[in-house]
């Protein structure tokens, strides 16, 4: 018989709807029941594509004996971290504080009925292992401790909460960080052999690479380009189907953890487009690789992540079945030479084995290899081979899809699709971006608020986080610039006006989440898998401020950006978005302020418009619109002829009608 989770708008929660555990969803009802029954809470946090979440669910939560033990002593609450990022952030901070910095998913926390943690961990096995108790042992110990030493647990929980609340306020700096020192710190961490930063595991560092691309200085540009090339050639990139996996388990980008997340690919699409823009024409091979990688990401998005309603789903699982029905991580993506020859025939199969570095012993497991792109193969032949391999791969058992639509991640996808559409002259990409944006309007905008998530067109109850409001507002404004439709700009303004009120901190920055009554209100100024909430709102305030001529938004962005200075100073590699903003501001102080490029045209893909998108310095906005279009303030006033009108700050340049002459107004320092 299904439990309470059967009606959830989360695939992760639905995966647990058949269990005998008397699960509750996060919310006031569950908290009230815990207070009424005076039982401690067992909080279990994960997400649908999490490998170890699946393992613990099967080993423990599917076990009737474990379920009975949980139901007797605890109020079990299951949380999808993608639905409730604030809950995840607060209790992950507790988990890391109580476990010497270690954390992860599944997250397992035991709380007082008031929601204060007294014991935390991650995965627990069904049987004890050296240094790790079984989950049954943990349940029995926590149940006994609550009955016999409740006062001690409550006192411990109060101490933990006191520590976390005192530690959650970030240090503030009165002076801007030394940008040269920040860039030097990042360069010191660069892996000169494999690209990227640090050792294993290696995550795609999209926001840091964007920062390195801002100025185009030789050393920073080289690091960004080498990393983008190494990732595009590595096993972390799905060479057959496009898109990137979550991270590489080794330093050389060879074997990934095989989840494929929307947010990674949304960010990387934009970064590869900007990397292509920054790469010189004479480096034709690298430009072609970056362009091909961007096109592959979009192909994967359109084929595997886009819903018929227009929105983009969250993730693909790492696990799938082999031909015998056994579940393995990564089996969907692995090949050997024999499999390649079976699909492609002898000549192309051996050619592909060489091009993709498929070795006799395998680069993965059981003689199988993860495909990597080696050398400089004929791209036309490569594309033909990949198309045939993709068609064959579709006959395998597919990884499961997390169907949740997350507002922030769709916002990031919309912005990157729009930018790519205008740079590469791809109207179908812009159509996809508009479709996703319309889905957010139709489903996620409810009574003036932006909701965080939805499933199959049914919106969740949680109000969006700061990252949702920021990413979606920036996406809507970017669409306004590309389509010339001011309705998108009005929506972006409304979202930011709401966000400033909802997330504003007394120091001028922003909290990450609304005040939902948790014992602590999360606020992180470093990037995690996506830009921090503060950085997302700062970026949106700047774009909307320029397009809507809202000086109040630009000033609010300046104030909020100052709160990120400490993060850039102490951890520049983990504050790429804030560093990008600082580098753009530094360029503005040196005479290269972000441009507002207005192209009056009847054609959204006019060559003047596309050239503006390709050439404009980082932080600029581009508007292509009919001269008679309404809703863009003074930007179109007196501008009736087809031309590009470029202003930077209070300086406007003569109109340009030939795209070959655009570089002068866009890049002249004044």
Runs with pLDDT <50, length 5+? none
| Average residue-wise pLDDT | 96
SS strand fraction: 5-15%
Strand order of the largest sheet: 1-3-2-4-5
The CATH architecture name of the largest domain reads Alpha/alpha barrel
- Given the helix and strand composition, which structural class is it? alpha+beta
Number of strands: 23
Shape: globular
Whole-angstrom Rg? 25 Å
Model description:
Residues 3-164 form the Spermatogenesis-associated protein 20-like TRX domain. InterPro entries: 6-hairpin_glycosidase_sf, Ssp411, Ssp411-like_TRX, Thioredoxin-like_sf. One of its GO terms (biological process) is carbohydrate metabolic process. By secondary structure, the protein is of the alpha+beta class. The protein has 4 domains: 4-167, Glutaredoxin, CATH 3.40.30.10; 179-314 and 403-589, Glycosyltransferase, CATH 1.50.10; 319-398, no CATH class; 596-667. Helix content is 48%, strand content 11%. A 5-stranded mixed beta sheet has the order 1-3-2-4-5, with helices on both faces. A 4-stranded mixed beta sheet has the order 21-20-22-23, with helices on both faces. The model has no long low-confidence stretch (mean pLDDT 96).
Q: Which key phrases capture this entry?
A:
globular; 4 domains; 11% strand; Glutaredoxin; alpha+beta; 670 residues; Glycosyltransferase
What's the short story on this structure?
By secondary structure, this protein is of the alpha+beta class. It is built from 25 helices and 23 strands.
């Amino acid at each position: 018989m299904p439990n309470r989770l059967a009606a959830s708008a989360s695939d992760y929660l639905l995966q647990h709807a058949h269990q005998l555990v008397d699960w509750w969803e996060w919310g006031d009802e569950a908290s009230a029941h815990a207070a009424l029954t005076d039982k401690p809470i067992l909080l279990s946090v994960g997400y649908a594509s999490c490998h170890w979440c699946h393992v613990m669910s099967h080993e423990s939560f599917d076990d009737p004996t474990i379920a009975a033990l949980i139901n007797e002593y605890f109020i079990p609450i299951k949380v999808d971290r993608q639905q409730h990022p604030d809950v995840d952030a607060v209790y992950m901070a507790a988990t890391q504080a109580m476990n010497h910095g270690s954390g992860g998913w599944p997250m397992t926390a035991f709380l007082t009925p008031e929601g204060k943690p007294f014991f935390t961990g991650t995965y627990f096995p069904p049987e004890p292992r050296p240094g790790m108790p079984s989950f049954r042992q943990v349940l029995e110990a926590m149940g006994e401790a609550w009955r016999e030493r409740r006062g001690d647990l409550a006192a411990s929980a109060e101490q933990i909460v006191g520590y976390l609340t005192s530690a959650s306020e970030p240090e503030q700096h009165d002076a801007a960080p030394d940008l040269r020192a920040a860039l030097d710190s990042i360069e010191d961490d660069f892996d000169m052999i494999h690209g990227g930063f640090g050792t294993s595991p290696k995550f795609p560092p999209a926001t840091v690479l964007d920062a390195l691309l801002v100025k185009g200085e030789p050393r920073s540009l080289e690091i960004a380009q080498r990393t983008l090339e190494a990732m595009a050639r590595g096993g972390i990139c799905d060479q057959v189907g496009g898109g990137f996996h979550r991270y590489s388990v080794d330093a050389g980008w060879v074997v990934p953890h095989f989840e494929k997340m929307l947010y990674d690919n949304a960010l990387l699409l934009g970064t590869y487009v900007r990397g292509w823009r920054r790469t010189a024409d004479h480096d034709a091979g690298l430009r072609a690789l970056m362009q091909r990688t961007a096109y592959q990401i979009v192909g994967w998005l359109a084929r595997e992540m886009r819903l018929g309603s227009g929105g983009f789903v969250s993730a693909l699982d790492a696990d799938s079945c082999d031909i015998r029905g056994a579940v393995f991580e990564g089996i969907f993506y692995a090949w050997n030479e024999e499999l390649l020859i079976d699909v492609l025939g002898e000549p192309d199969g051996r050619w592909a084995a060489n091009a993709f570095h498929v070795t006799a012993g395998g680069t993965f497991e059981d003689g199988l290899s993860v495909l990597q792109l080696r050398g400089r193969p004929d791209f036309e032949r490569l594309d033909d081979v990949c198309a045939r391999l993709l068609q064959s791969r579709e006959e395998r058992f597919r990884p499961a899809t997390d169907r949740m639509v997350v507002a922030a991640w769709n916002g990031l996808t919309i912005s990157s699709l729009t930018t790519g559409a205008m740079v590469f002259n791809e109207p179908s990409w812009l159509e996809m971006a508009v479709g996703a944006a319309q889905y957010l309007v139709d489903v996620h905008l409810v009574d003036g608020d932006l909701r965080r998530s939805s499933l199959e067109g049914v919106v969740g109850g949680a109000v969006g986080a700061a990252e949702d409001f920021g990413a979606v507002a920036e996406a809507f404004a970017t669409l306004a610039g590309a389509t010339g439709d001011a309705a998108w700009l009005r929506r972006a303004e409304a979202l930011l006006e709401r966000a400033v009120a909802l997330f504003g901190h007394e120091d001028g920055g922003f909290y990450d989440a609304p005040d939902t009554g948790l014992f602590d209100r999360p606020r992180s100024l470093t990037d995690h898998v996506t830009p921090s909430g503060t950085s997302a709102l700062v970026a949106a305030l700047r774009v909307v401020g320029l397009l809507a001529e809202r000086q109040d938004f630009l000033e609010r962005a300046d104030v909020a950006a100052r709160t990120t200075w400490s993060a850039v100073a102490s951890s520049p590699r983990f504050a790429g978005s804030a560093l990008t903003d600082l580098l753009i501001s530094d360029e503005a102080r040196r005479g290269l302020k972000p441009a507002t490029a207005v192209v009056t045209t009847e054609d959204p893909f006019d060559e003047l418009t596309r050239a503006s998108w390709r050439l404009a310095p980082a932080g600029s906005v581009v508007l292509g619109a009919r001269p008679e279009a309404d809703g863009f303030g003074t930007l179109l006033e007196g501008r009736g002829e087809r031309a590009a009108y470029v202003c930077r700050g209070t300086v406007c340049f003569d109109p340009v009608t030939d795209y070959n002459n655009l570089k002068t107004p866009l890049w002249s320092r004044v």
